[in-house]
Design a protein that fits this description.
There is one protein chain. The chain is mainly α and about 525 residues long. The chain folds into 3 domains: about 130 residues, no CATH class; about 150 residues, Bacterial polysaccharide co-polymerase-like, CATH 3.30.1890; about 180 residues. It has a 4-stranded antiparallel beta sheet with strand order 2-3-1-4. It is rod-shaped and about 210 Å long.
Length: about 525
């Protein structure tokens, strides 16, 4: 028999052979087709109905543009949606919903709370809807399946409210946490900035006068001190010359009152004072060529020249008076004691000499003080590069702290504004487009689809049974098969002789076959129509 099947497989397609198979096996095929369809279709009315309620939530963008208020929370909607989904589908939340809506009443006695939670999670389906262009989530759908359509609608409504409220809560909490974090960082930055500022101020106070910003002022002060030192040294030299002059005047006055005289009879002190007057005049002329009449050194030289000229006139008057007194006493009289009034020029000269000594001492002290200050400022200028480097290091840290503080201050302001926007529910939020639907037809079982599935199952069963029987059947059903079995050629054929009973039997089988086919298709069509009307 297998050899016959292999030979038939290699033979060309014979429609007559297959029509013969259909005539012989159509009752079995139709019976199995109806039985398979009826089995699947009947199960659709036996299985418990499940109703699925659905709603769609739109992801609404913030009311204010990001250019005005920058959000301070994560922009990843998918991550936040997954986080919210995990929170809502947590054991605690689902048990609250189960208890609130009295779900799974028939299964509570046999299932543990964890099993009830897992069953409810299987009944919930959350499907994100993405933009086909940029793959961004624009909305998402929530489905819940239950045996009661009203329960399915209530649970879907409860889940929708949880998603909307949880999103607002999560965004607000994340925004507040971000603001608090920035405020903490700002407080630390403020403390760091204050510490850096204190270090800079302490360093500036410790190096007062030697800072780089004071270099120009120090140079100016040093130049002024050096000019003052030069003036003091010039004044000291003038005071020393004045002291020498006054000392010589005192010596000459004493020598003039002594018995010894010069060869000409005139006091030698006039020559010294005349020389000093010539020196002062030459100095004044030299200063006048370099400075104006209001310059302090010019004024001082004029005053000193006037003073010296007055002293010369006083000395000339004193000498003249002394000469007249001696001429009046000539005649052998000896003056043993001079009149105190005649010693008045000497007293004045001695007083001026003491004043010169005091001025010299004051000038020397002033010079020492100026030299000390000049050394001090020169030391500050010499140490300025090292001080400037240290100050630059401190200032660099202070400026960095200042920059960080300003950045955090701006971020704090932006974060507070973003938090206010979230609290006013002006940020990205979930908006329910349509209320949860009330399902009128069960989602499972889908009776129309099960009709199609049953038709396919019945057809497969019938076809499988026909093929199997043909494979196992070793009988010969046609004259062509007989010819192939005979090893010799057929010379003639005897036609089949049918009586009336065979004819009736053939007609009855034909009527039965068509009636069976009509019945099967009528039943299938009726069942499909019934499923369509009641689904």
């Amino acid at each position: 028999m297998p050899e016959e099947i292999e030979e038939n497989a290699t033979q060309p397609f014979e429609i007559g052979r297959y029509l013969d198979i259909i005539r012989r096996r159509h009752i079995l095929f139709l019976t199995l087709l109806l039985a398979g369809w009826a089995l699947v279709w009947g199960s659709s009315w036996v299985l418990p109905a499940k109703y699925k309620s659905s709603t769609q939530i739109l992801v609404e963008e913030p009311a204010l543009p990001k250019d005005y208020v920058v959000p301070n929370i994560s922009d990843s909607l998918q991550d936040r949606l997954q986080s919210i989904e995990q929170q809502i589908l947590s054991r605690t939340r689902l048990l609250l919903i189960i208890g609130k809506l009295h779900l799974y009443q028939n299964a509570r006695q046999s299932l543990t709370p964890d099993e009830l939670v897992e069953r409810m999670r299987r009944d919930i389906d959350i499907v994100p809807v993405k933009d086909p262009q940029n793959e961004a989530i624009t909305s998402f759908q929530i489905f819940y399946t239950a045996s009661d359509p009203h329960i399915a609608q209530q649970v879907t409504s409860e889940l929708t409210n949880l998603f909307i409220n949880e999103n607002l809560k999560v965004r607000e909490q994340e925004s507040e946490n971000t603001t608090q974090f920035i405020e903490t960082q700002l407080s630390d930055a403020r403390a760091s900035l204050a510490a850096q500022e204190a270090k800079v101020q302490e360093f500036q106070a410790a190096h007062e006068g030697g800072l780089p910003s004071q270099e120009a002022a120090n140079l100016q002060i040093l130049s002024g001190l050096q000019a003052q030192l030069q003036n003091e040294q010039d004044a000291l030299n003038a005071a020393k010359q004045q002291s020498v002059y006054h000392q010589s005047m005192v010596d000459q006055y004493r020598a003039f009152n002594a018995p010894s005289r010069s060869a000409s009879g005139a006091p030698t002190g006039l020559e010294g004072i005349d020389q000093q007057i010539d020196t002062l005049r030459a100095k004044l002329q030299e200063l006048s060529t370099r400075y104006t009449a209001q310059y302090p050194e010019v004024q001082e030289a004029k005053a000193e020249l006037a003073k010296t000229e007055a002293e010369r006139e006083q000395l000339v008057a004193s000498l003249k008076k002394a000469r007249e007194g001696k001429q009046a006493n000539a005649g052998g009289q000896t003056q043993s004691i001079q009149d105190p009034a005649q010693n008045e020029p000497l007293l004045q000269l001695q007083s001026q000499l003491q004043a010169d000594q005091v001025e010299i001492a004051n000038r020397e002290r002033a010079i020492n003080s100026l030299e000390s200050r000049i050394n001090q400022y020169q030391g500050l200028l010499n140490s300025e590069p090292a001080v400037g480097q240290q100050l630059a290091d401190l200032t660099r840290g202070y400026e960095q702290s200042q920059t960080d503080y300003n950045d955090l201050l701006k971020k704090e302001s932006d974060s507070q504004m973003a938090t206010s926007m979230e609290q006013m529910q002006q940020g990205q939020r979930f908006l329910m487009l349509d209320p949860p639907s009330l399902p009128l037809r069960p989602d499972f079982p889908n009776r129309l689809k099960m009709c199609e599935a049953g038709l396919g199952v019945g057809f497969a069963l019938g076809l499988l049974a026909v093929v199997l029987l043909e494979f196992l059947d070793d009988r010969v059903h046609s004259d062509g098969a007989i010819v192939k079995l005979i090893p010799v050629s057929v010379i003639s054929e005897i036609p089949m002789i049918q009586d009336s009973s065979d004819t009736k039997r053939a007609k009855w089988r034909m009527v039965l076959g068509w009636s069976m086919a009509a019945l099967v298709f009528a039943v299938i069509l009726s069942g499909s129509a019934f499923s369509y009307l009641h689904s």
